[in-house]
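Hi, here's the filled form for the chain we discussed.

Project: internal
Contact: R.S.
Residues: 188
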Amino acid sequence: MAEDKDLIYQELLVLRCQRGDRDALQELVVTWERRLFYFLRRLGNEEQDAWDLLQQTWLKVLRGISTLRDPRQLAPWLYCIARNTAISHGQMRSLHREKLEELPPPSDTEDDPGPRNFDGVEQIHFGLLQLALPHREVLTLYFLESMTIEQIAQVLEVPHGTVKSRLYYAKRALRNILTKEDQRDNEA
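And the returned structure, exactly as it came back:
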């Protein structure tokens, strides 16, 4: 029920923004600034770069809000703009240079140990920074932004199957990184 309320609120907010309501534009920024900053921060290395990209993202959002045809697609639309802003400003050069090997889709028979209990947020952030950018993106959008596979595919501009594959291998890679860190901590 709360999720439905949020969707309706976002739709109304978009419609108000499209009509030029300045208060609605300010509300949009306040509502989404932290989440978009966090996403942009995961894409680059420097905090100041993320702030600069966020400002450029907001300029593009404000100029383009009238082109958003389906207000229910606000979240993917915002993240797509943020990601494209980062790409166009060279923050994600490694994304284009760093090709993920085409991995076969996960088989149904492979064991998935399931979710782990992590000691702290710092450990997760450390692990995320060790991942290839495509894996970092998909994990951030799926787990931290609670986007669906379809929404992530829209943001990343890749097929659904690619999102599922990246998500599977990203979880596996993160789990391996965190396991190695646990082992190092236990040896120390």
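Let me know if anything looks off before we file it.
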